[in-house]
Amino acid sequence: MSSIYHINKGVSKPIEFKGLKAQYIAYLAIGLVLLLIGFAILYIIGLSLFLVLPLIFGLGATLFFTVFRLSHRFGEHGLSKFLAKRSLPKSLRFRSRRLFTSLKTP
Q1: What is the pLDDT of residues 72-98, one digit of tens each?
Q2: What angle do the packed helices 78-86 and 49-74 form, to 10 degrees?
Q3: Pairing relation of β-strands 16-17 and 20-21?
Q4: Is residue 88 part of a domain?
Q5: Average pLDDT in the 7-22 region?
Q6: Residue 36: inside a domain
Q7: Between 99 and 34, the higher pLDDT residue
Q8: Does residue 1 form part of some domain?
């Protein structure tokens, strides 16, 4: 009795689509949805298509270039690490040593 086992290769690899890695796919999708909503709002307001279309296409091109640049520069987790490192303080200043002298040693 033989069984057929399927081996899932690349299970732990990040999702990649056309060069975009991991969360950047979601960033691009959310940006495109916001551009669509923005186009609908501007069109319903009554602005001319000759004004709205170049604006939306320009913002869309900027969105694509920015998201692809971030994906290639930082990779899968690099952007969150970069933002976390930026939020760390440069230095800590203590006015007294009481905090350290009151610590119990094992």
Answers
A1: 888 888 888 888 888 888 888 888 888
A2: 90
A3: antiparallel
A4: no
A5: 76
A6: yes
A7: 34
A8: no
Question: Number of folded domains in the chain?
Answer: 1
Backbone phi and psi for residue 16, each to the nearest 5 degrees, phi listed first: -135, 135
Please give the structure tokens belonging to residue 58: 């320009």
Domain range enclosing 65: 17-78
Q: d(Cα 25, Cα 30) in Å, to the nearest integer?
A: 9
CA gap 99, 103 in Å, rounded: 7
pTM of this structure:
0.67
Amino acid letter for position 69: R
Query: What is the predicted pLDDT for the residue at 13?
Result: 76
3-state secondary structure 60-86: HHHHHHHHHHHHHHHCCCHHHHHHHHH
The answer as to whether 96 is a domain residue is no
Alpha carbon 54 to its chain's center: 26
pLDDT(1) > 60: no
3-state helix, strand, coil split of the chain in percent (to 5) is: 60, 5, 40
| Residue 62, both tokens | 């900027």
